Amino acid sequence: MAYINKTTKTQRKIQEALLELMKTKKFEVITVSDITSLIDINRSTFYRHYLDKYNVLEKIEDNILIEITDFHNKFINNLSNKNIDITFEISDYINVDNNFFNIFEKHLSSMHILMGENGSITFQNKLKNTMLNVFKRTFSLASINLNKIEKDLLFNFQSASFISIINYWTEHPELTVKELFSFYNRIISNGIVNFVKDNMN
Fold first, then answer.
1. 55-63: which pairs have CB atoms within 8 A and are 24 or more residues apart?
2. Total of domains in the chain
3. Comparing C-alpha atoms, which of 147, 125, 152 is closest to residue 136?
4. Which of 19, 75, 148, 191 is the most exposed place for a label (fewest CB within 10 A)?
């Protein structure tokens, strides 16, 4: 157990070092030596945990995206037991204590770097695909009379608007989950939800 804890601690230190370096350097120019020097470990220790700097970045990205996916899987499982009809309201299924903003809040500082000037295009693409899948699965629980193109536009609109809010939040971390959820809920309830309702069976 002690060895596992030490391993996890070292892996976390390496990930934190890479993120720290990305505050001032583009990922492409960062070297393994930069990482090891920052946290005073030797290269053999680094390679005992990671293949290269790309592997470190991938683990950082995947840790965030897996948590998002796990949260959504639980959300979908809960929703699958409920009947979603044209009378539905967002507040019937989502509240300030149970929404995506709680997940993103834990990763704001990391995401500020990953989505920033020296950030990771791969993460931004992965996040886009993850959120597209989230909204596709969520809306699939309702019977919506739209053709494929209209559905694609709907999912892309929802995903892009949500990611834009998250990106704004990373630059304004003083905002609370309650404030973000309240704003997002008002926008969605008065806009896209009515659009979906108008096209439900």
1. 56/14, 56/15, 56/18, 57/18, 57/27, 57/120, 57/122, 57/123, 58/122, 59/11, 59/15, 60/15, 60/18, 60/19, 60/110, 60/114, 61/114, 61/120, 61/122, 61/123, 61/126
2. 2
3. 152
4. 148
125 shares its domain with 26: no
Q: Give tens-digit pLDDT for 54-86.
A: 999 999 999 999 999 998 888 777 766 666 666
For residues 92 and 185, state if they share a domain: yes
pLDDT bin (cut points 50, 70, 90) of residue 187 is confident
Q: What's the pLDDT score for residue 105?
A: 94
**CATH number reported for the structural domain that contains residue 22 in this entry:** 1.10.10
Q: Are both 76 and 32 inside the same structural domain?
A: no
What percent of the chain shows pLDDT beyond 90? 59
Tell me the average pLDDT of the chain: 86
* Mean of pLDDT values over 167-175: 96
- Note down the domain range covering 183: 53-198
